[in-house]
Amino acid sequence: MGALTGKTALVTGGSRGIGRGIAERLGRDGARVGVHYGSDETAAKETVAAIEAAGGSAFAIRARLGEPGDAAALWAEFDKHADGLDILVNNAGVGLQAEVADTTEEDYDRIFDINVKALFFITQQALPRLRDGGRIVNLSTGLTRIAMPGLAAYAATKGAVDTLTLSLAEGLGPRGITVNAVAPGVIETDMNAWLADPQAREMANGWSTFGRVGQPEDVADIVGFLAGAGGRWVTGQTIDATGGSSLGA
């Protein structure tokens, strides 16, 4: 039996990249995993199949985030497959690379609608479903610590996530629910296709004290710890998962 046998988890944006790595890790640990996706049904089905091939249990649910009623739509789909929740991983998000002077209101609204507003209301509507002793893990970014002006709006959304994490941890403590955030650095996913350029990759490797970019499992293993019994005394924390990026800065 795995450490999470009998538990039900939901990973938003769980079909690709870091989200897929987290979904597969929780599945290996025994949880039944809801794999949320916005549009790529094929990727979601592949993630479910991978979890099942490893002996786990999973189901896919679709809901487009950043639209009116997105949280309610997500939970309506979830409720078709499960009657409660033990682990919520708020991983879904979008990026935006633009200097402050070049950021449009449309871009700003979209990134905050998905990265902050959707996360807030997904979490709000999770609370009646989340069993006492449960876990919430939010995905943040190392950019709340490391300044990159071209990613200012994105970093600002994750600063809001860090603050929300702290407030939720205090509010949900009496129910035995832990709430933490994990803040990755550069992770090798299809969202970071620029890593295919050898010079860009060499630069990115140099940001970490370990001399490499991160892999989805590097983040997933931290989430797995927080989701399990070992994380029971950790709450209200944002855990740096950048591989020691910019420690000497």
Descriptive notes:
This protein has a 7-stranded parallel beta sheet, sandwiched between helices. The model has no long low-confidence stretch (mean pLDDT 94). The protein contains 7 helices and 7 strands. It has helices at residues 17-28, 41-53, 70-78, 105-126, 152-172, 198-207, 216-227; strands at residues 8-11, 32-37, 57-62, 85-90, 130-139, 178-184, 238-241. The N and C termini lie far apart (44 Å). The radius of gyration is 17 Å and the shape is globular. The longest helix has 22 residues, at 105-126. It is α/β, with parallel strands linked by helices and 249 residues long. It has one domain (8-241): Rossmann fold, CATH 3.40.50.720.
